[in-house]
Write a structure and sequence with these properties.
- The structure is a homodimer.
- By secondary structure, the first copy, chain A, is of the alpha/beta class.
- Helices cover 47% and strands 17% of the residues of chain A.
- Chain A has an eight-stranded mixed β-sheet with strand order 14-24-23-16-17-18-19-15. In chain A, strands 28-29-30-31-32-33-34-35 form an eight-stranded parallel beta barrel, surrounded by seven helices.
- The two termini of chain A are 52 Å apart.
Amino acid sequence: MAHKWVYLFEEGNKDMRDLLGGKGANLAEMARIGLPVPPGFTITTEACNAYIAAGNKFPEGLWEQVLEALKKVEERTGKKFGDPNNPLLVSVRSGAKFSMPGMMDTVLNVGLNDETVEGLIRLTNNERFGWDAYRRLIQMFGSIVMGIPDEAFDEVMEELKKEKGAKLDTDLTAEDLKELVERFKKVFKEHTGMDFPQDPYEQLRLAIEAVFKSWNSDRAIAYRNATGIPHDLGTAVNIVTMVFGNMGDDSATGVAFTRDPSTGEKVFWGEYLVNAQGEDVVAGIRTPKPIDELKKEMPQAYEQLLEIREILERHYKDMQDIEFTIERGKLWMLQTRNGKRTARAAIKIAVDMAKEGLISKEEAVMRVTPEQVDTLLHPQFDPEAKEKAKAEGRMIATGVNASPGAAVGVLAFDADTAEKWGKEEGKDVIMIRPETKPDDVHGMIASKGILTSRGGATSHAAVVARQFGIPAVVGCEDLDIDLDKREVRAGDIVLKEGDVVSIDGTTGEVFAGAIPTVYPDFEKEVDLMTLLEWADEIAARPDVRVWPEEKSMYPTRGLQVWANADYPKDAERARKFGAKGIGLARTEHMFFEEERLPIVQKMILAKTPEEREKYLEQLLPFQREDFRGLLRAMAPYPVIIRLIDPPLHEFLPSYEELLREVIEMEVKGETGPELEEKKKMLAAVEAMREANPMMGLRGVRLSIIMPEIVKMQVRAIFEAACMEKKAGYDVKPEVMIPLVSHVNELTTIQTELEKVAKQVMEEQGVEVEYKFGTMIEIPRAALTANEIAGVAQFFSFGTNDLTQMTFGFSRDDAEAKFLIDYVEKGILPKNPFQTLDVDGVGQLIDMATFRGRTSRNELEVGICGEHGGDPESIHFCHKAGLNYVSCSPFRVPIARLAAGQAAVKDLRSRGAEETYLA
Amino acid sequence: MAHKWVYLFEEGNKDMRDLLGGKGANLAEMARIGLPVPPGFTITTEACNAYIAAGNKFPEGLWEQVLEALKKVEERTGKKFGDPNNPLLVSVRSGAKFSMPGMMDTVLNVGLNDETVEGLIRLTNNERFGWDAYRRLIQMFGSIVMGIPDEAFDEVMEELKKEKGAKLDTDLTAEDLKELVERFKKVFKEHTGMDFPQDPYEQLRLAIEAVFKSWNSDRAIAYRNATGIPHDLGTAVNIVTMVFGNMGDDSATGVAFTRDPSTGEKVFWGEYLVNAQGEDVVAGIRTPKPIDELKKEMPQAYEQLLEIREILERHYKDMQDIEFTIERGKLWMLQTRNGKRTARAAIKIAVDMAKEGLISKEEAVMRVTPEQVDTLLHPQFDPEAKEKAKAEGRMIATGVNASPGAAVGVLAFDADTAEKWGKEEGKDVIMIRPETKPDDVHGMIASKGILTSRGGATSHAAVVARQFGIPAVVGCEDLDIDLDKREVRAGDIVLKEGDVVSIDGTTGEVFAGAIPTVYPDFEKEVDLMTLLEWADEIAARPDVRVWPEEKSMYPTRGLQVWANADYPKDAERARKFGAKGIGLARTEHMFFEEERLPIVQKMILAKTPEEREKYLEQLLPFQREDFRGLLRAMAPYPVIIRLIDPPLHEFLPSYEELLREVIEMEVKGETGPELEEKKKMLAAVEAMREANPMMGLRGVRLSIIMPEIVKMQVRAIFEAACMEKKAGYDVKPEVMIPLVSHVNELTTIQTELEKVAKQVMEEQGVEVEYKFGTMIEIPRAALTANEIAGVAQFFSFGTNDLTQMTFGFSRDDAEAKFLIDYVEKGILPKNPFQTLDVDGVGQLIDMATFRGRTSRNELEVGICGEHGGDPESIHFCHKAGLNYVSCSPFRVPIARLAAGQAAVKDLRSRGAEETYLA
């Protein structure tokens, strides 16, 4: 028995998308549930693949099955394909699993020829309609199936209209259209060397083959490459009985959405044209009418449509995008599919449908993508204005999309100017630098956007920008920045300081001039707030996880979303966005502030511990105030404060700059105290230089060699905590020790620091709840997590460093030199600094979590690297049984959604029954 | 019943060292096998610990058991402790498990007092002997038990001698000695406030307590800290009946070794003194006679000694160090223990004893330490000459002992001078630099020794020196090198270029002037050659290993020793030392040679792949010749050639130097082509700079971005291999791709390179046996080894980089900034770059080996980091089931011994039966 290549609509259903494509499966489904679908059938995607595999030959049995199916359609319609007396006409449409530009679209009216056109005229008693249908077939078949350029037909049409003095197509008479058919046939012959096929079966066969071939058109392949759709899916072909919306004023055609795709409101939304074919709606020659008017024009059809709208939504449990035709008063459904919608609509529809009881809250959470949430949170350029700017040639460069959002402002070429303009003069500033340094931060945070010509997604500019939610485009190599002239060149365009630019941190685009933006307000997004609360509830449900080496399941306590925040205002923002704790507060950022940095430098250059402690005492009050604000903002949630992490030379001037200054002074023969001072500083910086500072004297290593700094920090933390506790806040400080590779490092320093903590609490006469714990960011720490958890009360995966060490990639260098190539060449599926490498780094996280909990059951485990805000990585964190993910405040809503989705996906993947939220 | 604290000699044996200490166990053993040991008993180490734990109180039952044992000794000897008629005298000696300076030594003649001395005189009929024995007791008891300074007794003795006009002690008469007893008693009273105890039991009790207390003397604690002996072992106390070698000319005392401890020859070796006590031999007041003369003086005792020598060697199966006393013609054995010996003697004795059938070959291999083998291979300073130089104040500095061995030569302050003097003028040169760089190598290899003032054990100087077996002392911070004046200061001493220095790379010492050295010749060390062949055989035996996650055993093929060698002459040396393959040939070293570097630089700076290939074509013949030599030298053993690994900027001038030059020229207002050229180079170098070059664009990453270089290298390798094959050599090239973190990297580049290999073999018309494989030096590679072994035919653990990434330590930075502190503070047990970190890095090696072999059963797995030459690490490699360890040629003999020992240890630890070699 031959393989089954063809399915009548009544044989399929909506779950057969793989085989029948999206369109075919939905036509079948509509037929199955009794909606008025014109009879027809679908040729499977397997047939397409077999056709291609055989070198463009129909597989055995296909044509016979097509003929057989056609016979069934003839029976159903009472018409006959190619019968001049009662001709059956069909449309041939492609329909892959995923809709895809570049594929052959639709050929209508297949089955018409010189004889059947006469039959059609007789039957419809409408000569003009008949010839119009025929000329449309020749035109569509010619251009779509045979590849004749559209212009060839358009020219002939225009010529005829000129001859006849016709302004519109509709001004042409039946006679004119009959003449047009003849002329189109000539065009067809000229271009293809053959006559327009009179055999309807020949028409059908060629149209089917054209659909098959279009699967591998250049444009289709490029689209699949770009979107990651596999190349071996193939397309289905739908053969559908023609129905005509252009048979007079009792006929119409239209498209509609079951809800408003722009706002998500539950209103019937769409438009239609009377006496028109579907292509006329799309072509926009006549302006369609809003669907409401159909109620007056064709009340019966309208009522039926409203009913079908209800049926489809109840059936598909999602907003539908439908196509319909009314032929002489009878409604036919030609397509239904889940409708595309804006981010805002997606959220409203999901929430509404859950409230309506149509879908579960879990399903509502699954209906919205993290990107859609993101869209709602960052200022966005008005898309039309952006397109216009591009058309005007105002896009001057593209770079790395380092921190999402849109920003418009005047260019400032240094941090001081940016701060002055931004803070004092209230201007919107875009700070532009070749790259940024820690002492630029005051200017950066006073800016609306950051633009650099060097550095990657982890450059200083990028990290700071993300941290503060400032849109940034970095590494714009097309920009030639001249700091002396205070101007930037991009090709021929020169922009001066004070000129306006617009940067899109979501896409990496840079524009000259202003582009209008749209700003969202989180607290007004009530549907989003609702949805995220559901996501929280779902994510927080206890679950189970499986440790590969053990093959048994153990319970977990659900995944929370925390935030990384260094300043009280970040913490407040994070809390507003729904964070349940601070997973990472970086204390060193506090050292860079203007009044503190000179003290920090003196502290670093101190010759004795005593001298160092003198300066540390000056720093203590600053740190204590920082911590008070943080702890208070988050109470009663925990705040994890990381002790100083970077190498000390980061707080000193750059070696190269000092070297340059000293040499210049020396060559010029200068002498005196300034030179001596600089030389001293140069010597100090040189002594601290490291070959690979990322793996050098920093983190816990620094604390062990020079414990005074962290002792001061712990004192500041506990003084702050005690004061807040006394002020009535239920604060929960957690002290995090970074860069541990061996348990002895932790034991050594933690013992010292706990002493300080206890001493402070005694001095202050108050007890606070606290934890000491560590980052897991070194492979060895993960491998020996059982030992480390014997000391640490919590683990926080620093997945940036952990990824660096596990891959042996220095992120700055890798992103600048080879990582983009790696992803382009498919060597790595994704940038592992953006999406967690589950196969490698993930093994270490799994191992560390399991081993850590084996030695300390209640171990709190989270992740505070940038991956904490990446949905795919969050899914992994859920599976690994982590307690929380911590990300930048602006990613918190996205992470909350992703955490909820992870819980649902995981449940579903295990085939577990979905627990419906009340 | 009370705990047993006391063992009579006849109750113990040699296996009770833990309880009875080394001396006690051996005395018991000798008694047990019927040798003439004076009756006595041992107080256990447990008693010592109980005494200390109770706050210096005898535990219950101890004193009673001592008295009981003493009674048994009285019965055995027929004498009575404290009985004036027939007094029993005893010695009290400490005896811990390990011999240990700082512990109380020996008190002789315990039991003498004003009454028993008279009895002794009556019995021996020797008044002088009696009073001499008594004064010795007061002196020893006073100084050793009561802590009276020796000088107090010495002064009194000298005073008396002056009064009596006596020159030697022996000139003093019985009467004089009686007087001395009185004066010593006064000294005793003055210093202790009490009379010398007349009660023999009081003497005994105090002496025992003194031994116990000495366990925790400052010196003993310091010694245990330094040598890693646990503090809870405690010491035993031996109470032995006194026998006297000073009872006349028929009495004597001596020490002997059963073989020559210096050469290992099988001759009876020792010395004795007639009419003397043991302490006189040690004190060196009279010159002892060689043991041979005893044959004439006391033939009967001598014969008995020879017999005992045989018995002891057969019994202990090792060379013994014995103490004996002859009392009135009767031989008494006072001690036996395994004798200390020189490295050469250790080897000869082990080999001889195995040949004599006394021990197995396995045991022979276990009898020699890797350090002893090392001693035999490096030139050594004559120890006496070195001590003399120190006494003369010629030791001017100490640094890091970076590469072992002694070197003497004239100072050269740059590489060109070193090369000129060393190569052309045939001088012995010590090259001195603040630190070295790749373009110094030509001078370094022309030198006998390397001396630097900066850098650690992994600095460029250290690594190159070890590679070439050149002694080196690095990081001598005491040295102030002035390159302009071409002189070096160390405190007040100034040495000029051309002055002679001596450096000891084994100890890190630096001397002004020449110190004579002793050079070994490997091939003349026939015993060592024999021993290492046995070690090879043992190591090569198939074994089993256990993978922790699986709990089942799988077979392994035994561990070979290969060498790391970049040049044919290194390969030849490695082969002479017994290497069975080259585990790592670094191709980039070949790029640094003088005539090649300019081509390499042009290649790197090439603007197009075509231009780059032009220069690569010029490099190809050089590389091909290098590879021909290497492959030929090792045929038919495999040679693993690693493709280019370091970042390209290492081949270009240093950024700082260029920057300095350019700034200087600019400030001076210079212009012209030279400045332009330098600026261009500066720009190129700047573009290649990386934040953390160790983790940047190098290894396979470089090959993927710029495949032309490795294609040239693979072409050179296969052209070389084909040519040598045609010349009749059975060459086995293996191509190693470094720094892989993801299997796709390997797949991408290996596919390209195998094409080149096949093309060359086709061109040359000959097939060679080859492999492609990879370094495992990135944690991710180890974690995903199953995937990687699907492509790689061999793994080679680059444990330097693997340790760096696993710990997150940049070795250069870590050793310079904190690693020494870490080891000193006990945070890390050892420097993990010298001895493999089994707990962390070892897990990855285990995992990768197991997972790799799971997907490719015949996977060849080895290690080529510096750990390959470290005995402890080699032991781990054996247990991990590796096929080979690869180390620098000079470490090969040491590694061979360590590999054999690892196999034996592992078998023994599993309780498996030892297979005796034929």
